[in-house]
Amino acid sequence: MTPRFLTSFLSSLLVLGSTAMAQTKAPMLDIPAITAGLETYKKDLGNDFVVIVQRDGKDIYRKEFGELKATSQEAIGAASQWLTAALTMTFVEEGKIALDDKLGNYLPSYQSYSKGWVTFRQCLSHTTSIEQDPPAFGALLKKKKFESLEAEVNAYAKDRKLQGKQGTLFYYGSVGPNTAGYVLELIGKKDYDRLFRERLSKNLGLRRTSFMSDGLEAESPFAGAKSTADDYIKFLSMLLNKGSFNGKQVLSEKSVNEILKVQTGAAKMVYASPLSQGNAYGLGCWLQEKDEQGNGTLVNCPGVSATWPWISKSKNYAAIVFTKSESPEQKRMVFEAIRELIEANLPK
Predict the structure, then answer these.
(1) What are the φ/ψ torsions at residue 19 (nearest 5 degrees)?
(2) Is-contact 201 150, C-beta < 8 A?
(3) How many CB atoms lie within 10 A of CB 123?
(4) How many whole angstroms separate alpha carbon 292 and alpha carbon 179?
(5) Are strands 49-55 and 58-65 parallel, antiparallel or unpaired?
(6) What are the two backbone dihedrals, phi and then psi, of residue 345, each rounded to the nearest 5 degrees?
(7) Are the C-beta atoms of 252 and 259 separated by less than 8 Å?
(8) Pairing of strands 280-281, 58-65
(9) pLDDT tens for residues 145-170?
(10) Which of 26, 202, 205, 214 is most exposed by smallest CB count within 10 Å?
(11) What are the tens digits of pLDDT across the range 41-68?
């Protein structure tokens, strides 16, 4: 093969590859009434945002506004913890942990400071009763930085008081999810981001979702993920379709049902996200609407200045409003209006 022919051959491959990539890029699917309505909320959403709506794993609406693309990676804030709940359930399915396992079995520091009776379920449902950061939501993003999850969790054990018996108080914050995440590191013998990539990202095809930190502070299972609209809608579609994605069972239907049902019991609501007050809580997600058995029918996991993902089991669709991480603080009434706009114009 002559050098000239080789060059021509390689150039042809590059062209074919580029063409294939262009062909596989998801097309924009427009519903004019939804687009017209969303245009009125551009300022509230920071002008740059993406909205995707899926049913049965397929787009029924997809639109990019401003400069943000469906493949643009941004910090997703509190929406990270829904991913953390799903990752935890992969360990449960393998029998490596149980949701009602006591953390004292894994964390000597929790045992030493009288927090050993706290369970995984309480960590993921914010009912550990361990002292949290002050009840100002912005403070969650400005909390003390730790070099590792181990250092962070040991500080929780030593420096945070139990404000009541475990399981009796709901206080929204990073303590529970980040503690659960560190125990997963211990059991899985890998750092948190690698566990997520190997156990969930690979099976869902999440190409640009990561919990990797900047190296200056610990990874945060509560609010430290970066993702894209394209990636996160796959996760939502999997939940909506009983744990199945592209013909593969990523989570069991039992695990999905566990994530999407009320987990707080009789715990007193002390502090909730301002975006979700009045809602019930599952594992890593808010239950805005539920049936008589406590199973979520409208479930979401919004961030204050990040993405707003949700699934509606009653109307059989998944959706995400994905914004830049530095967008203005989101207003619940805006997203309620957007959800109602979408539902009013869904194809039958």
Answers:
(1) -65, -40
(2) no
(3) 29
(4) 31
(5) antiparallel
(6) -120, 15
(7) no
(8) unpaired
(9) 899 999 999 999 999 999 999 999 99
(10) 214
(11) 999 999 999 999 999 999 999 999 999 9
As a whole number of angstroms, the distance between CA 230 and CA 206 comes to 8
Residues forming beta bridges with residue 62, ordered by sequence position? 29, 52
- CA 276 to chain centroid, in Å, comes to 15
At residue 334's C-alpha, the angle toward residues 204 and 85, to 5°, is 30
Measure the CA–CA gap between 36 and 32, rounded to whole angstroms. Answer: 6
E-assigned strand segments in 119-267: 169-171, 226-227, 244-245, 248-249
With 0-12 / 13-18 / 19 or more C-beta atoms within 10 angstroms meaning exposed / middle / buried, residue 109 is: middle
Q: Is the entire prediction scored with pTM above 0.85? A: yes
Query: Are the C-beta atoms of residues 331 and 44 closer than 8 Å to each other?
Result: yes
What DSSP state is assigned to residue 2?
-
Distance between CA 179 and CA 221 in Å, rounded? 9
Neighbouring CB atoms inside 10 A of 144's CB total 9
Could you list the beta-strand ranges (E) of 132-239: 169-171, 226-227
Nearest CA to 225 out of 247, 200, 245 is that of: 200
